[in-house]
What does this fold into?
Amino acid sequence: MRKPALTSTASYQALETHAIEAEDWHLRALFAADPQRFERMSVEAAGLFLDYSKNRVDGRTLELLAALARERGVEQQRDAMFAGEKINNTENRAVLHAALRAPIDTRLVVDGQDVIAEVHAVLARMKAFTDAVRNGDWLGHTGKPITDIVNIGIGGSDLGPKMACLALRPFAHPRLAMHFVSNVDGHDIDAALSRVDPQTTLFIIASKTFTTAETMMNAQTARQWFLQQAPEEALPKHFVAVSTNEQAVSRFGIDTANMFPFWDWVGGRYSVWSAIGLPVALCVGFGYFSDFLAGAHAMDVHFRSAPVEQNMPMLLGLIGFWNREFIGCPSVSIAPYHQDLNRFPAYLQQLEMESNGKRVTRDGDLADTETCPVIWGECGTNGQHAYFQMLHQGTDITPIDFIAALRPAHDLYNHHAALLANCFAQSEAFMKGKTADEVRKDLQEQGLSLAEIERLTPHKTFPGNRPSNTILMDYLNPATLGALIALYEHKTFVQGVLWDVNSFDQWGVELGKVLAKQVEAELTGETNPGQHDSSTNGLIERARAAV
Ligand SMILES: O=P(O)(O)OC[C@H]1O[C@H](O)[C@H](O)[C@@H](O)[C@@H]1O
It folds into this structure.
């Protein structure tokens, strides 16, 4: 049955009417009117605390959003995903990244496949391998222990493991240096190879499809570089693969005994929990990797069982939807007040924008509202000194997700107090703003002339009323990181169901790839320059003339 268009549903229309009323609200007034607002609009789950009180919502907004979630079938779709139904309807696949973190005694059979048993069989192999590398039993071809791991992958085969290894820096093995090569730009692999010794380096070729052009080119370059300095028999000690494509892995020359498999029901951007997480397991050890999975599983349990009104991913998704649809916010800024989370905004860009950056519904109809906002961001306090100006006083309203740990992984407590103070003060400033009267009063106190006060007041006034969420954890560890990622995965899922888009395909990535192949052949002289537009022709000519 075709799903009704979003704007035709009763709950969406009720929200539209309600939004007209909400246009006049100011967050200052909402806080002043309800001293319990923080208690009422915060929720705790899986080691995370979400304060969503600094959003332009009231109790009625939340009721209407919950009704929308129910009318759009968020709970049914969630259950269908966890049951292994083929909810990725353009690729006819199940969506089972949550099964990758399910405990061993769970049972889930899909297409006759005992999914959980297969997952745990691969985890056992990952454990044996990572233990051997970490404790020095796995030796390079000249008998030396591994000191450097180079992960070659892109998109989901890079962003997750790289972000997690950085985030879990305090848990890292002291002997193992992690390197990540993703870009087809030779500067990327050149820089990595210049830092490592072939005798003590392990390359992980990570690609779900094992056909991705960038990864294949980087993998070939790494192989050639290695074989210039080591015999062919040494390869198995230094190259392993992570993929769903066994044939392509053996064609590349990696023994499938050194391949860690995963499955087509794991989307690239949801794959850090699978063998794609091998660099994470190598970096922090299998015990901590298991904690990472367990943290995500705790969020899964919450997502599956909590009612909409107390369900953290649902609330995050619904409020984001409200901001996008009814406040008209074109982007969301992610502000981790934690330096070790500095790749988290980049990770979320793929997670959310590749998932929900769609213009047609699951049935192929044009979406009747805007869908995914732009996701971007940078660690606090760095962002404050770069683009927060626009967030405070620009013409667009950009909701912000502040993310912070209450306790640091260092003992420089003055730094941590300063960091948290900035985080909380920013969310307060976005909420409250500074009125023209407050500005005038300040300027009067500074003894400025009346004319000067009137001239400066508009520049120094802050409208406030700018929405934000604050997500807190005790400290950043494998379990809280796992829960944090799973929170955003499920938030993305909830929004995908509300918009009725397929969050699990990514056809939009294809066109550029096909055209790049043609242009590459023209650049290298394999084919004659084709008939492009004048701009593309001109650019190709300039590049050909330069070589
Ligand atoms: O893991 P791979 O098959 O190499 O894919 C790597 C990435 O490339 C693609 O173009 C997709 O857009 C991503 O979703 C994917 O994560």
Q: What stands out?
A: The two ends are 57 Å apart (CA to CA).
